[in-house]
């Protein structure tokens, strides 16, 4: 957070150990073979999903050059900007926010190199909500399993959605299969991610996700699984929410 930012009242969603873990590898965000390789591999499938769901919801032509033009989008927990950049390219006005200063530094430098105009800020969902920021679309991707207070985080995000706005949340399910693949497999056996990246106890079941979204005043429209095939190294959308999944929620028009 910048030195001038005042911490909002209420619980903080920031887990300092988690931010430190991501900050330690912030230089690697844009290395497709580095520590964020899983996110790079996963990116095309989630980009296709986001593009399609946002276009469908706002009545945009998916094949248009800038289908998100006129939409204000928040990428909360944006990391190095792996999603913020394509969102900007699709035409959205993008605010990328992350609690890690180094992540925001990496994201800003990279966007600058790409000639992309993105508003990157080192801040939190609760601080943005308290400042009265409003968005048509909120991307909440692979963040919720890292925050200190899930309900406060979801409520702050929901508060920032305009009526009729859309939020997409991606996370990991709290199953033994997810423990085997995302924790043991990715961190210990394959060594893709630094050990300690994921705390299994913070993973979220689809039921808990639905309840959290509803409690935050949103309507859940969809929950889709995302499956990984380790042999082909390919990710695809599936009916299996046992490990990774994405939820789509809408703020009632009022
Ligand atoms: C797994 S990364 C996901 C990055 C990005 N959303 C993506 O999918 O490419 C999680 C990010 O969330 C950030 N983060 C964790 N807790 C946060 C919080 N309470 N507020 C804002 N950012 C947070 C971390 O610093 C980290 O960059
Ligand atoms: Mg994660």
Tell me what the structure shows.
This protein is α/β, with parallel strands linked by helices. The chain has one domain: 3-Layer(aba) Sandwich (Rossmann fold). Helices cover 36% and strands 22% of the residues. The chain has 8 helices and 8 strands; from the N terminus they run ααβαβαβαβαβααβββ. Strands 3-2-1-4-5-8-6-7 form an 8-stranded mixed sheet. Strand 1, helix 3 (84-89) and strand 2 (93-98) form a beta-alpha-beta unit. The structure holds S-adenosylmethionine (SAM) and magnesium ion. The site of magnesium ion has 4 residues, from loops.
What is the CATH H-level superfamily? Answer: Vaccinia Virus protein VP39
pLDDT averaged residue by residue? 93
- What would you call the structural class? alpha/beta
Q: How many strands appear in the DSSP assignment?
A: 8
Bound molecules: S-adenosylmethionine, magnesium ion
Binding site for S-adenosyl-L-methionine: 46, 77, 98, 141
Function: O-methyltransferase that catalyzes the 2 O-methylation steps in the ubiquinone biosynthetic pathway.
GO biological process, one term: methylation
Family: Belongs to the methyltransferase superfamily. UbiG/COQ3 family.
Brief summary:
This protein is α/β, with parallel strands linked by helices and 254 residues long. It has 8 helices and 8 strands, in the order ααβαβαβαβαβααβββ.
Per-chain topology:
Layout: H1 16-24, H2 37-58, E1 72-76, H3 84-89, E2 93-98, H4 101-114, E3 119-122, H5 125-130, E4 135-141, H6 150-160, E5 161-172, H7 176-189, H8 206-215, E6 219-229, E7 234-238, E8 244-250
Parallel strand pairs: 1-2, 1-4, 2-3, 4-5
Antiparallel strand pairs: 5-8, 6-7, 6-8
């Amino acid at each position: 957070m910048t030195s001038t930012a005042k911490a909002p009242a209420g619980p903080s969603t920031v887990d300092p150990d988690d931010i430190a873990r991501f900050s330690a590898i912030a230089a690697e965000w844009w290395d497709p073979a580095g520590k964020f390789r899983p996110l790079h591999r996963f990116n095309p499938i989630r980009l296709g999903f986001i593009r399609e769901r946002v276009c469908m919801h706002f009545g945009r032509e998916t094949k248009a050059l800038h289908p998100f033009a006129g939409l204000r989008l928040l990428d909360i927990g944006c990391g190095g900007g792996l999603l913020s950049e394509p969102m900007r390219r699709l035409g959205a006005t993008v605010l990328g926010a992350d609690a890690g200063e180094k992540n925001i530094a990496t994201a800003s430098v990279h966007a600058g190199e790409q000639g992309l105009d993105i508003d990157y800020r080192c801040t939190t969902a609760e601080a943005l909500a308290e400042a009265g920021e409003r968005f048509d679309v909120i991307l909440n991707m692979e963040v919720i399993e890292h925050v200190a207070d899930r309900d406060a985080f979801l409520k702050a995000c929901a508060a920032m959605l305009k009526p009729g706005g859309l939020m997409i949340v991606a996370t990991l399910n709290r199953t033994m299969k997810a423990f085997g693949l995302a924790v043991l497999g990715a961190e210990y056996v394959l060594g893709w991610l630094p050990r300690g990246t994921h705390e299994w106890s913070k993973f979220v079941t689809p039921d808990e996700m639905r309840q959290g979204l509803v409690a935050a005043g949103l309507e859940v429209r969809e929950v889709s699984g995302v499956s990984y095939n380790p042999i082909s190294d390919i990710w695809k959308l599936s009916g299996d929410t046992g490990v990774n999944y994405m939820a789509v929620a809408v703020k009632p028009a009022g």
